[in-house]
Structure formats: structure tokens, C-alpha cells
Amino acid sequence: MSWIETLRTTFGDHLREQEPMSRYTSTRVGGSADALLEAGSAEELARMAELLWEQEIPFMVLGGGSNVLVSDAGVREVVLVNKARSVQFDEVGENPTVWAESGANFGLLARQAASRGLSGLEWAAGVPGTLGGAVFGNAGAHGRDMAGSLKLAEILHRTKALQAGRQLEFVKEQWSIKDMGYEYRSSLLKRNKGGHLPLEFLILAASLRLERSTPELVQARVDEYTEFRHSTQPPGASMGSMFKNPKGDYAGRLIDAAGLKGKAVGDAIISSRHGNFFINRGQATAQDIYRLIALARQTVADKFGIHLELEIELIGDWKGYGSEA
Ligand code: EPU
């Protein structure tokens, strides 16, 4: 049986074939996924992953699609869209926490904490995407990041079982901050994945540390950050920050100083409000955006001798697009 027949037999009506990824990404670009499945709970996500691992069918997990650029050629791996969204606050005892499945909307979670008078996630109220994506990429804003909030991440892992020389089996582990190996906008999971390898782990859920405060105080800080974002970051279909900030400088400042704001390729344009935001102003293709990325990199390297590293992930089939793709 071919892999697609295996999927049809296993998942029946749940399987979507030739599904346009532009429907699942904040920048609204991307070709079709050969096969796509939505998981409604962490349990379902784990079950799907285990089935795919057993069948040796490569797959990837997509959260909010807000930090990825999907190739126009689409995705050959099975895409698991993470819609596992349960959220539970634990306000009993000295140290309140929130536990949530990895598909929960992170900004919404932060706003729910604010309305309960729980402090610690104010920085995240305007961060797009899912909790899982934020845990994976060590999302951050306003001088804070996931590394400062995470208590534990629930990880489904298969590599360890394989390394132990046993038959394929799945290990559910609780990873502490230390296990996550966080760096600026990076984690052990993100570095290991390398963007190309078949997925060996899944983030199923996470719990985050909070502190007791009042709804008024927490909301005031959320409002302050929201105001800052509105004044510095553009609206419109983007992936947030395109590049990581290089040590001691800012990608947005460098792109700005290189005179690139307002530069366009097709319908992709570098925001005139913030140089690190690339906007799809209508019918942009992934190739348009990729060419703009290459232009920004080349110009900043020529003018300032600084190599800009992507913060976003390139997803799907990027054959023929150069070394980083
Ligand atoms: N700047 C310019 N020109 C520009 C843009 C920025 O000169 O076109 C200057 C600003 O004046 C400022 C500096 O560059 O002095 C940094 O800009 P900003 O304060 O807007 O912050 P950022 O470093 O560009 C980071 C995160 C954002 C986060 C904001 C707010 C990264 C790569 N980006 O942006 O995160 O929202 O701080 O805290 O770390 C994201 O990760 O997707 C994201 C949006």
C-alpha cells in the first residue's frame, strides 16, 4: 500500500489531500500540502504522530502558522495542524500556574491570565501563534521570553527509545527549562530539527508560572505593550519578525539603515513602519518573500558586514532556493 493509501485507510474522512497551506499561515502564502490532518486534543495529536512514526511516514506539526514561510511548491510531509486547545488555571496554593495543550492560542492564554489578575505573561498578550510554537521557538517580546515563564513542557519523544535499541516505542516526558536548552529565539528542539529532519518529538502541552496580582495592574501592563506594538509594528499579513536580532543590534534597524523599507518584490513588501516585518499586500508568493529575504540579507551583509539569521522557519519543499532553504 502506498503511504497515501495507508493514510486514507487509517484516517478516512479526516484526511485532507492537496490542501492549500495559504489557509493555515498568517502571511497567507504557501502551496498545497499533499496530506493534512487536524488534531483536536493533545491525545489525538500523540495518537496521530505515533501512527505516522510506526508507518515511517514523515510529518510536521503546524501551530498558528504565524512564524513559518511555506514554499509555493507545498509540503510533501503530512501536516498535522495542532488544534489541541484545552486550558486549565491552577490558582490554589502559593504559586499559580496555567497548564495548556500546545495548540492553545498563546496571546489569548495571556489575556485570560490578565483577566484573572495573574501576572507573568503580559509580554505575550500580543504574540501571535500557539503555545507549542512559543515553547518550541522561545518566543519573546518586551524583554521577556518563554524561558522566563515555562515551568514544564510535556514532550512525546521517540529518539530515546530508538537509541536504547528497543523496538519503536514512545516516551512521554516532562522537560524542565534546563532540558529545553533555551537560547534567544531557539531551543534544543528547534536546533535539533534543523528544518529538514523527520520529526522526532512533539510538544503536547506546557505549564507556565504565574504570580498573583490584580486584573487592573496586569491589564495596565498589557495595554502599555499593546500600545507599543501598535505604534511600532505594522498591521497586515506578515510573519512577525523575519530575522533574529544580531548580537548588539536590531535586524529592523539594520534593514532600515540599509534603505530597504518599502522595497517590494511582487506583492511582498518590507514594511515602511518596521524593517523586520515583510508584508503580503495581496497576492504575494513565497518566492516573492524569499527574494526579499535574500535582498535584505545581501544588502545588510554588503553595507554592514552582518549576516542576518532567519527567525521564521522555512517549511515545505524549498529545493533550488539556496543553502539555508
Ligand atoms: N528600528 C529602526 N527601524 C525600524 C525598526 C526598528 O531603527 O524599521 C529600531 C528601533 O527604533 C529600536 C530597535 O530598532 O531602537 C528595535 O526595534 P523594536 O523595539 O521594534 O524591537 P525589535 O527588536 O525589532 C523585538 C522582537 C519582537 C517584539 C518586539 C517588542 C525580535 C527579532 N523581535 O523586535 O518580536 O514584538 O521586540 O518587544 O526579537 C517576533 O518575534 O515575531 C516579534 C515581533
Description:
- With about 325 residues, this protein is of the alpha+beta class.
- The chain has 3 domains: about 80 residues, Uridine Diphospho-n-acetylenolpyruvylglucosamine Reductase, domain 2, CATH 3.30.43; about 140 residues, Uridine Diphospho-n-acetylenolpyruvylglucosamine Reductase, domain 3 (2-Layer Sandwich), CATH 3.30.465; about 80 residues, UDP-N-acetylenolpyruvoylglucosamine reductase, C-terminal domain (Uridine Diphospho-n-acetylenolpyruvylglucosamine Reductase, domain 1), CATH 3.90.78.10.
- Helices cover about 30% and strands about 25% of the residues.
- The chain contains 10 helices and 18 strands.
- The strands form 6 sheets. The protein has a 5-stranded antiparallel beta sheet.
- Strand 9 and strand 10 form a beta hairpin.
- The structure holds uridine-diphosphate-2(N-acetylglucosaminyl) butyric acid.
- The site of uridine-diphosphate-2(N-acetylglucosaminyl) butyric acid has 16 residues, from helix 9.
> With helices defined by DSSP (H or I, 4 residues minimum), what is the helix count?
10
Question: What is the count of β-strands?
Answer: 18
| Oligomer category | single chain
> Which ions, cofactors or small ligands are bound in this entry?
uridine-diphosphate-2(N-acetylglucosaminyl) butyric acid
Shape: globular
Q: How many domains make up the coordinates?
A: 3
Record the strand order, biggest sheet. 6-7-13-11-12
The H-and-E topology, N to C, reads as HEEHEEEEEHEHEEEHEHHEEHHEEEHE
Assigned CATH class of the largest domain: Alpha Beta
Detail the poorly predicted runs.
none
Share in helix = 25-40%
**Which structural class should the secondary elements be placed in?**
alpha+beta
**What would CATH call the architecture of the largest domain?**
2-Layer Sandwich
| Beta-strand fraction estimate | 15-25%
Q: Would you give the CATH topology of the largest domain?
A: Uridine Diphospho-n-acetylenolpyruvylglucosamine Reductase, domain 3
